[in-house]
Amino acid sequence: MRDGTGHVANKRDYIVNMKNMxxxxxxxxxxxxxxxxxxxxxxxxxxxxxxxxTEDMAKEKAYVASPGxxxxxxxxxxELSEKLKNTIVDYVTDQMLGKKFLTPDHTEEQIxxxxxxxxxxxxxxxxxxxxxxxxxKSVYKGRVEFEFCKENYSALFxxxxxxxxxxxxxxxxxxxxxxxx
Length: 181
Hints:
50% of the residues lie in helices and 11% in strands. It is mainly alpha-helical and 181 residues long. It has a domain at 1-65. Strands 1-2 form a two-stranded antiparallel sheet. Strands 3-6 form a two-stranded antiparallel sheet. It has a two-stranded antiparallel ribbon with strand order 4-5.
């Protein structure tokens, strides 16, 4: 695929670049994430959009404007292919299930050192970790930044949809996948 400058781009970058180029050509604003933010005002000023479309967009904007939500529209085949199912599992594993920091192969010395480095001071938590290691499980850690929860939460969805679009062979499309709050 080629972007507006003629350079070959990957599918995700191509989609974002094309939507931004269209927004800029039509005088629309770009939101804080750099994605096209179409407004009823910019549509009304644009001769490419008929008035009835602008009225529909105003109704849609009123619907979306409810506090704490942002809507999306996806198109996909009813049954997900094995490739897309695996893509979802890989995405969740990589993005939501933490990073491995202890394995059953760690020695007691290493475990104690990691407890100290990771500030795992609670006896109950240490006991549960040791039990999991004895059961042959690896232990993962992660962090959820509640201060930036809105941005992180929407980015989690957006990245999943882009990942699925890139992995799919015309079986998944985010028609309106830019969550702006």
